[in-house]
Amino acid sequence: MIQRSLRQRLFLIGLLTIAFALLLAGAGLVLLFGHHVVRTLDDDLDAYVHQIVGRLENDSVSGELRLSKYASDPRFEKPLSGYYWQVLGGDGYGTIRSKSLEDSVLTPHGECIADGLTHYWYIVGPAHETLLSGQMCVKWRGSRGATQVLILVGIDIDSLSKARDAFAREMIFGLLILATVLAIALWFQVDLGIAPLAQLRAEVGEIARGERTRLGMVAPKEIQPLIDEMNSLLDERAAETERARNHAADLAHGLKTPLAALVADSRSLREKGEAEIAGSLERIADVMQRTIARELVRARAKDALRGRRIPETSVLEVVDTLVRTLTRTGTEVEFDLRVPPSLTVAVGRNDFMEVMGNLLENASRYANALVRVSATKDEGSIQIVTEDDGAGLPDGAEEVVCRRGGRLDETGSAGLGLAIVQDVLDAYGATIGFSRSDLGGLRVSISLPARNESSSAGSGPALGIASVFL
């Protein structure tokens, strides 16, 4: 599945918008530049035309038209330079033209109307190039009488194309620099714009790890409603959890007295000789007690993983405490502890004591003389192994001890069964395995996921965000 990135999507849309805007701006600037150059040429043509009109006079000998002096621009003197002028006089006044035309004659556009205004047309030059021409028709009274004179000045527009192309090349380079600057600014803008989402993700992760119970960020008004809704859901979940916890406690306390009365009645029956009925009642009461205790342990383990920070628990400290307790209660087996002092697990202390207490109690009960506890840590997990030198499990007993209500000791009245251990370990994403120990008895191995060192110091087992709202 292709991962969709909001940052990349916004950045791509912004880049396309910038590119489209710069293309339009570039085309518009080139067009405006061309119009500006044309207007400049129009002004130049008008100036040249009026300059020629001002210098126009009759030759005193021939009576034909002539200029008192040629136009001041030297390009009119260079042959085929692209700058041309021409004066057409009617009624025998003759034609005069710039040296740049040599023997060529420019063909004017339209008829000569003596209005004294400069008109602009595109005409063909002597080298078949396109000229932008300025034409003015004036009335002239000379020695031969009145007539109309057409003054025509033409400039090759190839210079316009060259200037426009040069401008476009320089402008493209400038637009590329501008596009780069805008793209960098756009990246920072997008990053700044979605920063609240990154903060929201971080806080949701903290909630999933149990480091906080509510979202505390102050977000823009577009995101704040989402945060308010999530906080409402979190508050409702916390309230439901508290109610469930109270209901479980009330249930436990409510059943405690009837169960005690049931046990007392069974003793009375046993004293009266009703041993079979008393035994049946005791077994029923025992199953009920173990079921209630198991469900309370499971609820406590799940509650520890939802919305609460899970502290590190020292393996050696818990094991040593349990060993001293078992020693004081009369066990005669020897305990061999091979646990690094610095080794810790991300499991609640009460839950870890519940697990190790059941394992050590069962191991000491079935061991002949020795119980060994060892713990190691590798790259991905923490292994805690409990072994004894007893008889071990018979064939097929592994399934029995892990099923609901299963126990190693079916005749005793103490203990919650290894199924409770399995429930607690399942809540923390851990596993348990049974095998034959090299001591001769049972080997129980627990594998706990190692805490990710790159995560927050208070992070617990990895939980999906959906579990926050369950």
Please render the helix and strand layout as text:
Elements: H1 6-55, E1 56-58, E2 65-67, E3 83-89, E4 94-97, E5 119-124, E6 130-142, E7 145-156, H2 158-193, H3 195-208, H4 224-271, H5 275-305, E8 313-314, H6 315-328, E9 334-338, E10 344-345, H7 349-366, E11 370-377, E12 381-388, H8 397-402, H9 418-427, E13 431-436, E14 442-449
Helix pairs in contact: 1-2, 4-5, 5-9, 6-7, 7-9
What would you note in describing this structure?
The longest helix has 50 residues, at 6-55. It contains 9 helices and 14 strands. By secondary structure, it is α+β, with helices and mostly antiparallel strands. It has a 5-stranded antiparallel beta sheet with strand order 4-3-7-6-5. Strands 9-11-12-14-13 form a 5-stranded mixed beta sheet, covered by helices on one side. Strands 1-2 form a two-stranded antiparallel sheet. The protein folds into 3 domains: 7-163; 227-294 and 296-303; 313-450, Histidine kinase-like ATPase, C-terminal domain (Heat Shock Protein 90), CATH 3.30.565. α1 (6-55) runs antiparallel to α2 and α6 (315-328) packs across α7 (349-366). 48% of the residues lie in helices and 19% in strands. It is rod-shaped. The chain has helices at residues 6-55, 158-193, 195-208, 224-271, 275-305, 315-328, 349-366, 397-402, 418-427; strands at 56-58, 65-67, 83-89, 94-97, 119-124, 130-142, 145-156, 313-314, 334-338, 344-345, 370-377, 381-388, 431-436, 442-449.
